[in-house]
């Protein structure tokens, strides 16, 4: 069993090595294209980063196999077997005299008399470095999945404390959705306190608005903010961001992947800003002032910060 684990971890390590350098190469190519398209629509640049994320998801199924460095591949093999340590002649003539097992001297006693701690220590010593690294990778992936599940639970708990929107807010949302051409109006919920508005929900979209923002901000500014949030629904960002989140979860150890996620998130927000400005008719200065006024003096609740960090919402 230990040898099988070592074999699997060696194959995993080689795969991660190939994905690491190939993702860096692809990110450099996409980054160069985005720089050439820096004056074009941010939605186009986001599409390139999203395509790269989708490519990384399928890269384990199709990648160029390049041998890892000597120092890396030397740790990807299990301890040598008896046939590898004995001369060929001894192995061929070993039919008359059985070979001694590769067990430390202190453990060559009756198995019933062997201390469990010694057996465990001997088994752990047979694990290679890549096996330990693979175990660490799997543990962090499971922790990340558990963290996302906890954030979903916190978000659902927040939804239970919200109230329905008033008639004025509902009319504004309907008008904004009509301008964007949304086929389905999201549910509108108001939560008590300050924070940032957001949209969530894959099957049934929900627009969350903080009560203090609704009460304090002027109607034109509120309309621009709602247009930005609804733009995420128009662009189907609540679906596409899961590809980026999946890449960040699987390749958490790769800084190139985090750079890809950052650039994709930036271009996604710029694309929503552009769509909101074009729909509202506001210029860049007025729109930027609206965002600053909405963000100044507000502290996001922990659940919203966690959900935003996990890219669960727009």
UniProtKB/TrEMBL annotation:
Stored CDD domains: M56_BlaR1_MecR1_like
UniProt KW Transmembrane keyword: yes
Keywords, ordered alphabetically: Membrane, Transmembrane, Transmembrane helix
Domain of life the protein comes from: Bacteria
Transmembrane segments: 12-37, 46-64, 129-150
All residue ranges annotated as the Peptidase M56 domain in the record: 20-301
Pfam families on file: Peptidase_M56
Record protein name field: Peptidase M56 domain-containing protein
Organism field: Lacipirellula parvula
